[in-house]
Specification:
With about 190 residues, the chain is α/β, with parallel strands linked by helices. The chain has a single domain (about 5-185), classed as NAD(P)-binding Rossmann-like Domain (Rossmann fold, 3-Layer(aba) Sandwich), CATH 3.40.50. About 50% of the residues lie in helices and about 10% in strands. The chain contains 7 helices and 4 strands; from the N terminus they run H-H-E-H-H-H-H-E-H-E-E. The chain has a 4-stranded mixed sheet with strand order 1-2-3-4, sandwiched between helices. Helix 2 (about 20-45) packs antiparallel against helix 4 (about 80-95), helix 2 (about 20-45) packs parallel to helix 6 (about 110-130) and helix 4 packs antiparallel against helix 6. The longest helix has 28 residues, at about 20-45. The termini are far apart. About 30% of the residues are buried.
């Protein structure tokens, strides 16, 4: 099989159980959140701190089928750090009860938990950026980078994929915060 065929084969045969879904959220969302919060006092003390969350197109809200979920994840004026945690728990509850479709979580093609973990991280970073307006906190999708994790089906080299995150990290003082970048271009979370 070609690399693309192998990737499709894995996607079609991949299933995730509750323990795997919980571990995925605990690692991708919880782990990143815990590290960010542990470093927050140092970031706040800095004169021009930046947080760059390595995101993915997989976490975009257009992959959710539920309009209420999309609206809730997208409404930065109503979203809180506590609510992002609650949404994480709600996903796991719906996963456990086999009700992902009913609420409109992303379920097509590939593991749902990974998609939701990226959407949760995007939401968390946006809320954190709003709460700490002097920090610059952004999310970056590096693009489809050629790695072992995708059977080398990516169309970008590692160096090309690094351009977006590095560019956001090194942007001049006073740049955007609470934004999503697709590579080096600001884009929508939807």
């Amino acid at each position: 099989m070609s690399a693309t065929e192998r990737l499709e084969w894995v996607d079609q045969r991949s299933t995730e159980n509750y323990v795997q879904a919980e571990e995925c959220l605990r690692t991708n969302y919880g782990g990143t959140k815990n590290v960010t919060e542990a470093l927050l006092p140092l970031l706040i003390a800095s004169t021009d701190a930046r947080v760059v969350n390595l995101s993915s197109f997989i976490g975009l809200l257009r992959l959710f089928s539920g309009e209420e979920l999309k609206q809730e994840f997208n409404d930065i004026n109503k979203l809180s750090l506590e609510r992002v945690d609650e949404l994480s728990e709600l996903f796991l509850e719906d996963f456990k009860n086999g009700q992902l479709d009913q609420r409109g979580w992303p379920v097509e093609k590939g593991p749902s938990a990974y998609r939701v973990s990226k959407a949760l991280m995007n939401a968390y970073m946006r809320v954190l950026a709003k709460k700490h307006a002097l920090l610059r906190i952004n999310c970056v999708n590096p693009g489809h980078v050629n790695t072992d994790g995708n059977f080398h089906t990516g169309d970008l080299t590692v160096a090309e994929g690094a351009r977006g995150p590095v560019s956001v990290a090194l942007a001049p003082k006073g740049g955007p915060t609470g934004a999503y970048f697709d590579g080096t271009e600001e884009a929508s979370f939807v």
